[in-house]
Design goal:
By secondary structure, this protein is mainly alpha-helical. It has a domain of about 25 residues. It is about 70% helix and about 0% strand. It contains 1 helix and no strands. Keywords: Membrane, Transmembrane, Transmembrane helix.
């Protein structure tokens, strides 16, 4: 009664096991995109109001 172990990984199990890794990669990419967008937005904001620094407002 020896059964050969089937080394094929079922697709569902492989997907379920890799889901946390894919989620972490997705969160990292979204975080980097957010940081880049905020820095770009801040740069535009400060360039817009740079002329008014000496106004005293």
């Amino acid at each position: 009664m020896s059964r050969k172990k089937d080394n094929t990984y079922p697709a569902k199990k492989m997907f379920r096991d890799s889901l946390p890794i894919l989620g972490a990669i997705f969160l990292a990419m979204v975080s980097v995109a957010y940081i880049l967008f905020r820095s770009w937005s801040n740069k535009l904001y400060y360039e817009k109001w740079k002329e008014y620094e000496d106004c005293g407002i």
